[in-house]
Amino acid sequence: MITIKVPATTANIGPGFDTLGLAFKLYSYFTFKKIEYGIRILGCEEKYQNDSNLVYTSFKKTLEILKYPVPGIEITIKSDIPVSRGLGSSAACIVGGVMGANIIAGSPLSKDEIFKICNDIEGHPDNIAPALFGGLTASLVEEGIPYTVQYNINENLYFCALVPDFRLSTAEARKVLPSEIPYKDAIYNISRIAVLLKALENGDDLLIKKSLSDTLHEKYRNILIHEYEEVKEICEKNGNTALFISGSGPTLMNIAKTKDFQWKIEYEIKNLKNSWIIRTLDIDMKGAVVL
Hints:
Blueprint: E1 2-11, E2 20-35, E3 39-42, H1 54-65, E4 72-79, H2 89-104, H3 111-122, H4 128-133, E5 136-142, E6 145-151, E7 158-164, H5 170-175, H6 183-202, H7 205-211, H8 218-221, H9 228-237, E8 242-245, E9 252-256, H10 261-270, E10 276-281, E11 289-290
Parallel strand pairs: 3-4
Antiparallel strand pairs: 1-2, 1-11, 2-4, 2-5, 5-6, 7-9, 7-10, 8-9
Helix pairs in contact: 1-2, 2-3, 6-7
């Protein structure tokens, strides 16, 4: 029996569209146990308890790549990462499935090879990289090969997530993006991502506020997030450093100066029409691990 622990992640972080990611101490656990034949999936909604389950399809694909016979398998999922909320639930499933398969096959894959398989399945590395390696990451893909680097992040920054009671799929959030963008919008993001990475390392509130803005995706996606403007106004009024859409949404992530920020906004957020869970998340520096 094998158990893999994979952290939740946020991606994009403002200007770092499909590039930046950050791991948090909020986890999914995937336990793999060989059985005589077939598949058995436990711990998730019934509609996911079949051979289309993302953990299983990632597990199976990896074994096929390794030319290792796919055994009968029982997969038990225990997850604190909300589904379709912009906190990397699909990346966690993929990483868990690929790592589980690698161990079943005798661990022939390096971490970089695992990264490539995961990226091939997901289609972009921004959530996969921090889920696998931990911390703050920037990633690129060149000729089908993903590469990632890790950056330091100041320990005095607090990340406060507002997780709503409605879902938003990545596919739906990508549909609203334009096929072309103005040159000036590309320059806007390039300049800010470079400054943002250093500002996050130094914990520079002013530079974080100035650089954590975007022209490529957030202005198109925020219309899909109910009460976006109301939440943003409440958070800014109570002294957040910056707010960004976590991944493709609908979770909204604040960077704050103090851990008590969540208590400052709690009353007003609770009085909104939709139900929002407020949670301050610590950074995970280890990434996915075998327990």
